[in-house]
């Protein structure tokens, strides 16, 4: 199984196009922030001291969350390619079980998602340190990696439900383009939560993405929030957290956020187990 994981990782990182598209949503969000969003949001929060030091880590948190969505989807595309090329059929000849093959794709997608999120965090932290003199504590890195692992596992479990149904590579490019575009919206990178209409806010909060963003942002922004809101009325802090997506309808702290993400993960795993058993039954009937 680990030979298959190594093979999947090698195929992904040797393909520059795959690596580029796995970070496309990150690149889009970063450019939009620099050109449009940053100046607009600074105008919204002029009464907050050192607003830039809040908004930069806000963007980093959302961008890392969006990266998980697109990177995992690109990584799992290898599974579809192997189906179409009948590579999986060849792997079966080595007496590798169907379960082991599925797990190898899951592990490789998780590793890729975690590495890409960590890479984006490091790069964006260095960029904002150089241009905005925003210093993020490097002690956050282990926590970033842990959240990246959780996020990658959630999105791998989610994507495998649908990618197991895709039979040809021609469908992948369109699907990945849609996923990459929507990732930024659902991670609340292209616009803050408070700007969206009520229906939009509710729809977004029925996905894992804003909760992962909230975890990242709560951690990365915590120190600066305490500094910036030290002499600011409490209602302004509450308004900031609500509008910027740090407080969500169903989670106002990291404990509740983790509970909700765990529910998503368990639900996706159960759906995968059901789908796997159905596929085995169908295969045995056809055989």
UniProtKB/TrEMBL annotation:
The keyword 4Fe-4S does not apply. Keywords: Membrane, Transmembrane, Transmembrane helix. The keyword Chaperone does not apply. The chain crosses the membrane at residues 20-37, 58-79, 99-128, 140-163, 175-196, 258-278. PANTHER family: NODULATION PROTEIN J (PTHR43229). This is Multidrug ABC transporter permease. It comes from Philodulcilactobacillus myokoensis. The lineage of its organism: Bacteria, Bacillati, Bacillota, Bacilli, Lactobacillales.
């Amino acid at each position: 199984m680990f030979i298959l994981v190594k093979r999947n990782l090698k195929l992904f990182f040797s393909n520059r196009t795959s690596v580029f598209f796995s970070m496309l949503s990150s690149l889009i969000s970063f450019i939009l922030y620099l050109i449009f969003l940053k100046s607009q949001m600074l105008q919204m929060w002029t009464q907050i001291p050192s607003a830039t030091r809040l908004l930069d880590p806000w963007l980093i948190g959302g961008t890392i969350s969006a990266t998980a969505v697109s990177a995992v989807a690109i990584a799992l595309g290898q599974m579809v390619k192997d189906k179409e090329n009948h590579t999986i059929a060849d792997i079966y000849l080595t007496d590798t079980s169907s379960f082991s093959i599925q797990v190898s794709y899951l592990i490789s997608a998780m590793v890729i998602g975690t590495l890409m999120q960590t890479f984006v965090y490091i790069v964006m932290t260095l960029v904002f340190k150089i241009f905005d003199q925003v210093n993020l504590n490097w002690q956050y890195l282990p926590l970033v990696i842990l959240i990246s692992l959780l996020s990658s596992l959630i999105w791998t479990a989610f994507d495998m439900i649908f990618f197991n149904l895709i039979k040809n590579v021609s469908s992948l490019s369109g699907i990945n383009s849609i996923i990459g575009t929507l990732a930024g919206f659902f991670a609340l990178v292209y616009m803050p939560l408070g700007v969206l209409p009520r229906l939009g806010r509710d729809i977004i909060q029925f996905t894992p993405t804003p909760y992962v963003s909230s975890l990242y942002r709560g951690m990365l922004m915590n120190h600066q929030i305490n500094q910036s809101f030290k002499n600011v009325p409490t209602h302004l802090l509450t308004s900031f957290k609500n509008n910027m997506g740090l407080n969500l309808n169903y989670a106002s702290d990291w404990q509740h956020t983790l509970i909700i993400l765990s529910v998503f993960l368990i639900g996706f795993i159960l759906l995968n187990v059901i789908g796997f058993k159905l596929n085995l039954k169908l295969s045995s009937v056809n055989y």
